[in-house]
Amino acid sequence: MNPAWLGKVPPDFTVDGRKVAEIRAAHKENPEIDRTYQVELKDSHGTVHTVIERTVCIAEERHYSQKTSKGEAR
Q1: CA-CA distances (angstroms) from residue 66 to 3, 44, 48?
Q2: What is d(CA 23, CA 35) in angstroms, rounded to the nearest whole number?
C-alpha cells in the first residue's frame, strides 16, 4: 500500500552563498569533494512527509571525465 503523497512530493533544497563559497574554497585543495545534505520532502501544503539525507559528489568536470574514463566512477 502506497501513501497518497508518494510520487507527488518533489525534493527541494538550497545551498546558501556561504556554503557555495566554502565548496569553491575546498575545490582549490581537492578536485572532488562530498557534501551531505538533509532534504525534506514536502507536499504543496508544506507538510513534511519525510526527511532524507543525500550525499552529493561535487567534482570539476575535467576531473570527473578523467575518473570515468578510467572506470573509477562511483
Answers
A1: 42, 41, 39
A2: 9
Model confidence over 6-52: pLDDT tens digits? 666 777 778 899 999 999 999 888 888 999 988 888 888 888 888 88
Q: Grid coordinates representing 26?
A: 575546498
Give the DSSP H or E segment for 1: none
Full DSSP string of 2-52? --TTTTS--EE----HHHHHHHHHHHHH-SEEEEEEEEEEE-TT--EEEEE
Strand ordering across the sheet containing 11-12: 11-12, 32-42, 48-59
Q: Residues 11, 71, 20, CA angle at the centre, nearest 5°?
A: 40
Domain spans, the chain: 11-69
Q: Output the pTM of the full model.
A: 0.60
DSSP 74: -
